[in-house]
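Weekly puzzle thread! Below is a chain. First person to post its structure in token form gets bragging rights.
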Amino acid sequence: MAITIVGLGPGDGRLLTRQAWEILAAANPLYLRTSHHPAVADLPQNGERHSFDPLYDTADDFAQVYETIVAQIVQLGQAGDVVYAVPGHPFMGEATVTGIVAAANQADIPVTIISGLSFVEPTLAALAVDGLNGLQLYDALEINALHYPTFNPNAPLLIGQVYNQHIASELKLNLMGIYPDEHAVFLVHGAGTVEQSVTRMPLYEIDRTPHTAHLTSLYLPPLPLPSTLAALAETVATLRAPGGCPWDQEQTPQSMRSGLLEETSELLEALDADDPDGLREELGDLLYHIVMQVQMAAEEELFKLTDVLADIDQKLKRRHPHVWGDWQVADSAEVVRNWEQIKAGEKAAAPQSPLDNIPLSLPALARSQKIQDRVSKVGFDWPDVSGVWAKLDEEIQELHAAATPTERIAEFGDILFVLVNLARWLGIDAETALRETNLRFSQRFRALEHLAQARGRDLTQLGFAALDELWQEVKRDSTHESSI
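Winning reply:
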């Protein structure tokens, strides 16, 4: 009672190891995962052969095929000795092998692995690439199952099991989420066989070749410029290290605060201006600040970048049980309610006020809206929006009646606070609304300046009536009307 798993190598019989040949020569019967492999024709003609190829035509998917093969081989192993042969190396992209080993261990059946060359060695030889130069190995089906590939585009990548044009098409779309469409890649067909070929092409063409088959793999050279979070972390760590930048070395978490706030504001400006190039740049600047803060914390042995990434990844998955769990939601409003419920459960160890953890550094309008959102969740809110309108009228009258500077400041603040509440009731983000109005006003005032200059008029010499006339003219030409 034993299972022997033999690797057939990547090509014809010439690439079989001597040990594999001896095992195969003595095997009767021999079980093949597939007979569609170049080495099969060269195997010793010594007895019965059985392949599992018919399963591929009847099963719903590869997973079902592999489960059936595992069950049958383990059942044969329980009855006696069985030899099972797979393409390449048994532990290189062979799901049935890992399944058989796990099931055999459970059933207390000994398993012997007879190694073989994998597709990797002849593929590296065909490409003249050093496999120890950071090479990453992936299965095409594994990448196609992801929404965002997890490999490092700054290191070489070899993808196996690009079985057909359909898989190549899905793979292309996933890869183009990271690599440029024109990135030069290499399709390798039949590595280690007499039909071996290497074709260089742009990434967007990998599904257009008719040669794609079960012995096809794809090689992608690294991107020319550092472009990963790890690469940025290395850059920042170098700036902080001996021999780095004196300015960066002098910074502390506190000294970076004003810059962080400034970069956040510039990012918001790029969003308001609908400026993709500016957004790209400002996101990079903000990332620098984030990684810089992490680097300083790591130097103090407080936490590492991996801790930050793991924490936010787990938090997102924990708070989205309708995606990574079995919760059911009807709409986004229910998602928000669930989020708050889960968040409250995470912090249930200590009683908290709804106003806890609202940053003092938030812009005043944003903080006011956050405060009012929080208290409304515990019922401290108007029954309907009419109460907010009435309160706004009341606060305006109190500002009219204010007699001292201190009273005027307080009443003006009350008006702003009520206006923020009104924005919340109307589904408006107060901070965004004012920021967009500031931007719109600035654009129109600059247009007014240009109009006056074109007509040879000095703004400082014009009265309000003339300035307002120019303003109304600019507004009439504007594509976005408002009361300002």
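Puzzle host: Confirmed. Bonus trivia for everyone else. The chain has a mean pLDDT of 90.
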